[in-house]
């Protein structure tokens, strides 16, 4: 069987879907991946045995001419590869890949990894994107959603008419993200943020909280890991110099930071299902996260994590204070509970099995 995968980012495809790709390759399927070229993850995908098709995808652009070019590219790929099934991930491959598959009468399975800013905010842009999504999903054989809220939104807006499946995000590889003993608390409690440095990830609320605790002379450390997007670089460097945060930029050794952390903080405004929270919990670290779909499902309140109101620095500060009041033993127990939850509910094998069942059903 020929399987074509349409994606927008090599890192995301390799880090969160490689187990599915390996399973397809192991059973003898030909796997083609269409995404932008890079120097790190595309070579790994090719080494696995995937056929690579270089496809430029402007992930955040709204240029209709550029997007029309992407649609034409997908049609060309479908003609050349002639896949038996197409898997699409993220908004533009979902929309334009879906339209291309419909025009070319190719079966396709869609994964809605999250709504995204253009859908979250009401207005002309949301209206345009929803119309495009409706067209892209019209003939999908199956649509996977990573949280119930996103699924309900699409169904209420009559964007999907095909079979829908609710899966636990991308799942988490429990072997790669193994449990690590909880770090001993010495003088300071170590909080960690991992993610893109952007407004939608709640970085403004995090920095406000960090400044609050700096003024209070509380014995806490805020480590921030991730690439800066937008106009945050100067502010991050200033706060780093002042000792408000420790900013490390983008790193490939994120797990080492997780091992040393006492808790992970994610004040995100919207998520499909947060992979950072899944990996943190699997490692045995408590999570402090926004009470939004895509975050709140990944922990049990007061058992494996603490929630707080979205876009509310005061609520985040309160959650941090509540965590600081816990004993070291209670914090460690919270981390162990998170690992248990990941083993029961978020094992990536669950996601792989769901996909294989759908792929085989359509073959």
TrEMBL record:
Keywords: Transferase. SUPFAM superfamilies: UDP-Glycosyltransferase/glycogen phosphorylase. Residues 2-147 form the Glycosyltransferase subfamily 4-like N-terminal domain. CDD domains: GT4_CapM-like. Gene3D superfamilies: Glycogen Phosphorylase B. It comes from the Bacteria. One of its GO terms (molecular function) is glycosyltransferase activity. It holds the Pfam family Glycos_transf_1. Residues 182-339 form the Glycosyl transferase family domain. This is Glycosyltransferase.
